[in-house]
């Protein structure tokens, strides 16, 4: 993995977090306990802070950045960020899924307990209300989350916490 200091900022990665060897983590980045950063992810905290909460998965090919002086990127606890997502200066609250190929832009907010469908775009400054399933470009509300959706959100983050544990265990075994 490439963990790079930028100016006076060194990434802070919890000892119980997993960062894949091909990931790049630069500058003002904080990654919480039991979180995972998978192959070819870039967390570029050179223009401002990136905070990734606990038990959150940032999957393959995702890019996380922001606009200096305008936005920061915060990803809450128990969030699953799918493959090849772009998170740019946005907030993802706790217990969400951001589907593969989605783009969430500056000052957008995805509120707690929501699902952003694969390929959806959340434009700058827009808000996905808590407990919503959204799809499309630009996004539109498909429906409110069902009990089954909420169970899937929990299933997803729990599976990635277990996968994180497995990878950390394998790394510590001679």
SSE blueprint:
Elements: E1 2-4, E2 12-13, E3 18-19, E4 24-31, E5 36-37, E6 42-52, E7 57-58, E8 63-65, E9 73-75, E10 80-81, E11 86-88, E12 91-92, E13 97-98, E14 103-104, E15 109-110, E16 115-116, E17 121-122, E18 127-128, E19 132-135, E20 140-144, H1 147-172
Parallel strand pairs: 1-4, 2-4, 3-5, 4-6, 5-7, 6-8, 6-9, 7-10, 8-11, 9-12, 10-13, 11-14, 12-15, 13-16, 14-17, 15-18, 16-19
Antiparallel strand pairs: 19-20
Describe what this molecule looks like in 3D.
The chain is of the alpha/beta class and 174 residues long. It is built from one helix and 20 strands. Strands 1, 2, 4, 6, 8, 9, 11, 12, 14, 15, 17 and 18 form a twelve-stranded parallel beta sheet that branches. The longest helix is centred in the C-terminal third of the chain and has 26 residues. The protein is globular. The two termini are 19 Å apart. The model has no long low-confidence stretch (mean pLDDT 96).
Short recap of the structure:
With 174 residues, the chain is of the alpha/beta class.
SS-based structural class? Answer: alpha/beta
Helix content: 10-25%
Q: Distance between termini?
A: 19 Å
Q: Strand-residue fraction? A: 35-45%
Count, helices: 1
* Biggest sheet architecture: 12 strands, parallel
Number of strands: 20
Low-confidence stretches: none
Cα Rg:
15 Å
Shape: globular
Compute the average pLDDT: 96
Keywords:
174 residues; alpha/beta; twelve-stranded parallel β-sheet; 1 helix
């Amino acid at each position: 993995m490439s963990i790079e200091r930028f100016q006076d900022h060194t990434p802070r990665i919890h000892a119980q977090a997993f960062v894949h060897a091909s990931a790049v983590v630069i500058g003002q980045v904080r990654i919480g306990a039991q979180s995972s950063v998978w192959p070819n992810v870039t967390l570029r905290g050179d223009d401002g802070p990136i905070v990734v909460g606990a038990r959150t998965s940032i999957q393959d090919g995702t890019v996380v950045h922001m606009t200096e002086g305008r936005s920061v990127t915060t990803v809450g606890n128990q969030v699953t960020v799918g493959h090849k997502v772009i998170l740019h200066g946005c907030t993802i609250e706790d217990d969400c899924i951001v589907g593969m190929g989605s783009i969430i832009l500056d000052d957008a907010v995805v509120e707690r307990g929501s699902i952003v469908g694969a390929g959806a775009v959340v434009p700058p400054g827009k808000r996905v209300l808590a407990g919503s399933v959204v799809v499309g470009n630009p996004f539109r509300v498909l429906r409110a989350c069902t009990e089954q959706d909420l169970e899937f959100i929990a299933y997803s983050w729990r599976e990635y916490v277990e996968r994180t544990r497995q990878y950390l265990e394998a790394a510590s075994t001679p």
